[in-house]
Amino acid sequence: MGDDAEKGTEVDTEPASSPPAPQPPTEPAPAAELIRREQPHDQPEPRIAEPAVAGAAESDPATAAVPPPAAGRRGWLGRGSAAPPAGRRRKASRFELPILIVVAIAIAIVLKTFVVQPFYIPSQSMEQTLHGCPGCAGDRILVFKPVFHVRDPHPGDIVVFKAPANWDELGGVTLSSNPIAHGVQWFGQLVGIVPPSEKDLVKRVIATGGQSVKCCDDSGRVQVSDNGPSGPWRSLNEPYIFENSPWTKPRTPGVKAPDDSRSFGPVTVPKGRLWVMGDHRGDSADSRYHCGNAGSGPNCDPDSSTVPVSDVIGKAVVIAWPPSRWRTLGTPKTASSLGLPAIGALPTEPATVGLAGALVIGGWRRRRRR
Question: Which of 123, 145, 203, 212 is flagged as catalytic?
Answer without folding.
Answer: 203
